[in-house]
Amino acid sequence: MSADALRVHKLGGSVLPDAGGIRKAAEALAASAELPALVVVSACAGVTDRLLVIAERAARGETTTAVAGLQQLLEWHCEQGRQVLPEPVARGLEERLRGLGQQALQLCRGIAALRELTPRSRDAMLAFGELLSSQVVAAVLEQLVPMPVVLVDARHYVITDATFGAARPQLELLIQRVHSQGLLEHLRHGRLVVTQGFIGATAEGRTTTLGRGGSDFSAALFAAALGAEEVVVWKDVPGLFTADPLIVPGAQLIAEISAAEMRELAAAGAKVLHPDAVEPALSQGIRVVLRSVTEPGRSGTRIVPAREVPAAPLALAWRQPCWVYSCPVPALESSPGLRTPLLSIVSRTGSVVVSEFPLEVPEGWSAWEGTYALVTVVGGVPERWSILMLEALAKEGIAPTSCVVDPPWALRLVVRQEIWQRAVFVLHRMLLEQCFRCVSV
After folding, report:
1. CA-based nearest residue to 51, from 139, 117, 138
2. In angstroms, rounded to a whole number, what is the distance separating the alpha carbons of residues 16 and 43?
3. What is the rounded distance in angstroms from the CA atom of residue 334 to the CA atom of residue 138?
4. What is the structure's pLDDT at 351?
5. Backbone torsions φ then ψ of 204, nearest 5 degrees
6. Which of 190, 201, 355, 384 suits 87 as a labelling partner, its CA being 20 to 30 A distant?
7. pTM, 2 dp
């Protein structure tokens, strides 16, 4: 196996809601993956939140409730295994899960005895979500793929600093360890390797977590360390669309998007994979692909470090409700305590500030009446197509209260909240007319 043929697959919590979801995700991966490969697994849906509640209850001294919650969570994982595995395999899995459960119970009782939940103990507790789910996923994959499946502990490889809750990994140490501690050897011998996302450890062996988007970050780190060809992020949707298809009928799947365009969409409010989470892969020229466990044969969306971007809109996103304020430019510059505005349109006479939160109006500011939406159209060279977008709105009697062309990627429009959906439909219709060459249909 050459390193550049290797793929890293990431299974997120949204595709692991229960036994049926776990099996569907494993089947999609087994059917479409070029094996061997590395599989990075998140906690099952909702489990991390449940573990945090358990830890907080233990810190308040609610030992009985916390222990009962942990036991229920452990039994839930055992039951998922029993539903999808042959009885002898399920028994072996249950033994391993109960071993992890004993460790979690010991930690829970320790937190209760101290009546304190430190960042370190919180990370140690939250890690059990990935440790439990990866056991179940590995056992299911073992039944589906024609090669050996090896489960490894990510904490032996992902060495981080001691910033518990948002630890920073050390890529150089990860590279050393995947080569020296057997992980790359497993792959070279044709094995499917399963590990955990989101978690790591300090050099002293203390468990850490990587914070929001941690499992995507883990997959990107492993890909960079292994020199992989591709990271495949398995989701419950086929990829990224020109708009949220739950809101906009006819939204089209985007075949390819650059990291810069992806970052702009994420900031504009789209529920997408944030490129910062996969930056270690993109910075090494490794592409990232979003694919669906329900449609594994569909090509999905490719996220590439850079692409040749045409002068055309690609996608749109929105944030609403928003609050809008007028202020003199000096007032904006002299308000360091102000939360970062979503948009600040600066002119010679003053500024329009758009915020996702209502603000205490500083002296010299005035609040606009009502609430608004900030709609952003993302695409290359917006100065070339923005007028077409505004003309389309005007034909429908929709007048944005403010707009700004923001090269190199965006047209930003402020519209009253009661008409935001109408505006989005008109903009999306014009977007498809302009950018049909850029999307897969």
Report:
1. 117
2. 8
3. 55
4. 86
5. -85, 0
6. 190
7. 0.89
Q: Give pLDDT tens digits for 302-316.
A: 999 888 888 899 999
Check if the beta carbon of residue 90 is closer than 8 Å to that of residue 81. Answer: yes
Return the biggest CA–CA distance within the chain.
75
Q: Encode 256-273: b = buried (16+ Cβ within 10 Å), e = exposed.
A: bbbbbbbbbbbbbbbebb
Domains of the chain: 3-236 (3.40.1160.10), 313-440 (3.30.2130.10)
Question: Tokens in use for 229?
Answer: 């060809």
pLDDT in tens, 257-269: 999 999 999 889 9
State which amino acid sits at residue 260.
Answer: A
Return the closest-CA partner of residue 303 out of 236, 255, 271, 266: 255
Return d(Cα 338, Cα 108) in angstroms, integer. 39
pLDDT bucket at 1, cuts 50 / 70 / 90: very low
The H or E element that residue 413 is part of is strand 410-416
Q: How many Å from the N-terminal Cα to the C-terminal Cα in the chain? A: 34
Q: What are phi and psi of 367, to 5 degrees?
A: -90, 135
| Cα–Cα distance for residue pair 124/217, rounded to 1 Å | 19
Half-sphere exposure of 30 (CA within 13 A, CB side): 19
Owner of token pair 């892969």: 281
Residue in 235, 195, 238 with CA at minimum distance from that of residue 37: 195
Q: Comparing C-alpha atoms, which of 358, 268, 367, 346 is closest to residue 322?
A: 358
Interhelix angle 386-395/420-435, rounded to 10 degrees, is 130
Q: Name the CA radius of gyration of the chain, rounded.
A: 24
SS3 state of residue 73: helix
